[in-house]
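Worked example

This section walks through a single chain of length 416. The input is the sequence exactly as stored; nothing has been trimmed or padded.
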Amino acid sequence: MRREHLGHDFFFAVMTMVKWFICLLAGALFAVIAPASLAGCSLSECETDADCAGDSQCIDGGGVFLSYPTCESGIATDSTPGDDAGIEFEVTDIDDDAGVSPPSEDTGTPDADFSPINAESESDTAVDDEVDTVTCVAPSSAEACASKECGEVTVYDTCGDAHSFSCGFCGAGETCQDHSCVNLRADSGLILLYTFTEGEGETVYDRSGVGAEMNLVFHGNVAWGGDCDCLEFNGGAVHRAQAHKLYNRLSGNHAAFTVELWLEPFERDQGGPARIFSYSQGHSARNFQFAHGSCTNCSGNADFHFRVRHQGDERGDPFMDVHNQAELALTHSVITFDNGTFRYYKNGAFVTHDNNSARSGNLTNWDSSFALLLGNEVSGQRPWLGRLYMVAVYDRALSDDEVTHNYIFGPDVDGP
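Given that input, the structure is written out below as C-alpha cells.
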C-alpha cells in the first residue's frame, strides 16, 4: 500500500510539474510571438480561440492573460477540474518580455467595427454639413456720398467687396474737383493770359502756364490801376518784340483762334482805329488786330474793328466792323476766327458774324517777326485810352456756351 501510494504521489507530482512547465512555456511563447502575428483579436476570440492567447486585447489591467490556457493572478491552474485543481505553483515574470501594454481599466467593450479614423470622418462630415451665413454690410449711397457733390466713389463692405456710387453731376460751366463742383473758366486751348494783378513794376506776366512765357514791358504812359487789378493806358503801350508762341500755335494751316478781353474805354469814340490788341509791324501790316473805332476823323468811332492776315490779303482785308459796341463801362468782348468767319460776342451774348468768302480760311502767310502790343501800335500813332482787366488768347474758337460761361465767371480768373 505504501509503495502504491508513493507511486501515485510521484506520478501526480510529475504530471503537475509537466502542466506547470507547459503553462510557463505557453505564456513565454505567446508573449514573444503574439504581438507580431496575432494582433487584432477581439475579447470574444480571446475566450474561444487559443491562437489569440497573448494578444494585447487578451490582457487585463493587471497584466494577466485572460484566454486559454487560463493563467490568473500569476498562478497556473488546470482549466479542467480534477483532483489536482488545488495545486499551486508561483509563476514569475511571465509578461516581462511580452512587449504589450495593459489596456485601461475601462470595463466597456469597444465595437469591433469602430475605428478612430471612421469617428474623425463622421465628425468632419457633421461640421461640413453646417452652413454658415455671412452678412456683408455695405454703406448706402447716402453714406458713401456724404459731403460730396459730384463724381464717383468706391467703398468696401465688411466682406471686402467693392461698391461704386455716383454722387451726382455738376451744372453747366462747372467741373468736379475733389467731389466738389467748381465754377472754372472755359480755358481749353488757352495759350496766352494776362490778368494785370501785378500792381507794381513795369512787367506784365503771362499767366497761361503754357509754353514759354510771353511777358510784356511798359512803354510810354501806362500805369497800374489804383482801385482794380487792371492796367491803364493813356497813350502808351505794353509790348513784346516777338511773339513766337502765338506764331507757332496759330499760323500755317491752323485756321481758328479766339481773343477774349475785359476792357473799359475812357472814351466811347476813339479813332484811328485805336489799337487795343495788335500783333503787327506797324499801322499798315499786321497778323491780327482788335481795334476801337473804324477810321481816323470819321463817324462810327464807337465801333470795334477786326482784321486778320490771311492767304488772300496781307493787310487783313476784308475787315469786320461791329457798330456801336463800345461803352464807358467794364465790358466783356470776345472775337473768334474760324476758317475765315468772324464771330463777335458782347457780355456773354453773340452779337454778329462775318463770313466773307474773300477771307481765306488758313493763316499760312503770317509773319513771325511781328511784335505783340496792347494799347498802341509799334509806330506809337494809334493810342487807345482805357483800362484792360484781362486778355486771353486761345488756339481754337470758343463756343457760344463757353463765351457765356466766361462772362458769368467774370474778369477774375481765380473766380468771383
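What to look for: Residues 50 and 67 are 7 Å apart (CA to CA).
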